[in-house]
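Checklist before submission:
- one chain only
- standard amino acids only
- sequence pasted in full

Submission:
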Amino acid sequence: SGCAKLRRLDASGCTSVSDDAVLALCSGSCFVSGLECLDLSFCSKVGDLSLMYIADGLQREGSFEVTLTKLALRGTSVEPTTLKAIRDQFRYSTMRKNNAYFGFWPASRPHARRNINEYGLRSKYATTIQAKF
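Returned file contents:
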């Protein structure tokens, strides 16, 4: 289906990209969560509302964690306080704000960290099931 294997999207400098476009990306039927890198740098019509769409629309199935590990927002209308409000959903990224970058940057080895955490959860659930029988 359409964009099911989309992992990276670079819309940097696209001045017509707005909150409505981000909503369409995050809630469209052709989009399946799995996007890892989204660059919205210098999309001046992108604001705080887009971050809410991203946080809600790009969550991993059955989890409140987003699949994104890199989100570039330099030159947008996004406020740092809004970015801080959703940073817990970016477990495998660090928030960066400096002259060169604003957004979430991947922590070292995000895929390995995610696999380790998923293994730990599966182990915990298996132990819980075994304890009941």
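Reviewer check: Strands lie at 8-10, 37-39, 70-72, 93-97, 102-106.
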